[in-house]
Recover the amino acids of this structure.
């Protein structure tokens, strides 16, 4: 992309814009300009005009500026598809930009989407990732969804997960969308919105004695199945009941704001507000 900007003067802003467009060979919708000096008595107006950046370029510029102001040394790589702009951050101490369960990374991503949301009619969702965190988190949530599906199938009782962001809720819904035993639904209001995994109509609890049958029968070489005596008091098998620590099955009563060294969230908020004010976004 040609980022050249030129200074143009004329009797009026309209005349200066027209003159600048002709010099750059651009259509009006392809350009952006800034008024440097208003026209006055015996004085022409001056503008700085150039090609409007793409949303991808704009998102990259904002990402680099935000990281710089936050004191993070990360390389920014941008990949664009038909529906999405992926920003990959590479640097040391990825945990600093990821935060507690991705809170900082999600806030960073949210701000980039807001700052670029008024980009004509061709807006694309901006996704920010580092160290393949999104894929790893999705894998953890998919395992959690499968474990909780088994629990709901056994008990025929709904299970409510903790508060999750849209990406995490969507991962749970997708993992269980074809389940013959459970349905999923999002409930609550942002940011306290969560997923409920519910038994399908007519699903009945499975008695302890009707848990999975074992390959090879109950005995092998005169010995009983080793895990037979490892059944937990609540009737659930240890292996089936295990849930990843990355998510709990009950939302916290009061979700506390995480704190980070260097005031990361405070810096993010400052960058966001200053850029929003500068661009006069609503």
């Amino acid at each position: 992309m040609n980022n050249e900007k030129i200074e143009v003067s004329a009797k009026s802003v309209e005349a200066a814009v027209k003159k600048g467009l002709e010099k750059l060979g651009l259509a009006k919708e392809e350009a952006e300009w800034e008024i440097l000096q208003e026209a006055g008595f015996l004085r022409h107006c001056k503008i700085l005009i150039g090609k409007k950046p793409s949303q991808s370029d704009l998102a990259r510029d904002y990402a680099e500026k935000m990281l710089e102001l936050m004191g993070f040394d990360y390389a920014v790589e941008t990949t664009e598809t038909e529906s999405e702009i992926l920003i990959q951050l590479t640097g040391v101490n990825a945990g600093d930009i990821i935060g507690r369960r991705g809170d900082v990374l999600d806030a960073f991503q949210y701000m980039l989407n807001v700052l670029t949301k008024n980009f004509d009619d061709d807006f694309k969702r901006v996704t920010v990732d580092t160290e393949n965190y999104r894929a790893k988190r999705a894998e953890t949530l998919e395992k959690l969804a499968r474990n909780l599906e088994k629990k709901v199938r056994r008990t025929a009782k709904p299970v409510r997960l903790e508060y999750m962001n849209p990406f995490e809720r969507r991962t749970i819904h997708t993992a269980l969308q074809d389940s013959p035993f459970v349905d999923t639904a999002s409930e609550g209001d942002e940011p306290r919105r969560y997923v409920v995994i519910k038994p399908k109509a007519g699903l009945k609890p499975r008695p302890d004695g009707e848990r999975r049958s074992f390959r090879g029968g109950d005995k092998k070489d005169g010995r009983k199945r080793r895990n037979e005596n490892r059944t937990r008091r609540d009737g659930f098998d240890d292996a089936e009941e295990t849930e990843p620590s990355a998510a709990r099955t009950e939302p916290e009563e009061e979700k506390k704001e995480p704190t980070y060294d260097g005031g990361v969230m405070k810096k993010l908020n400052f960058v966001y507000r200053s850029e929003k004010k500068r661009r006069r976004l609503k």
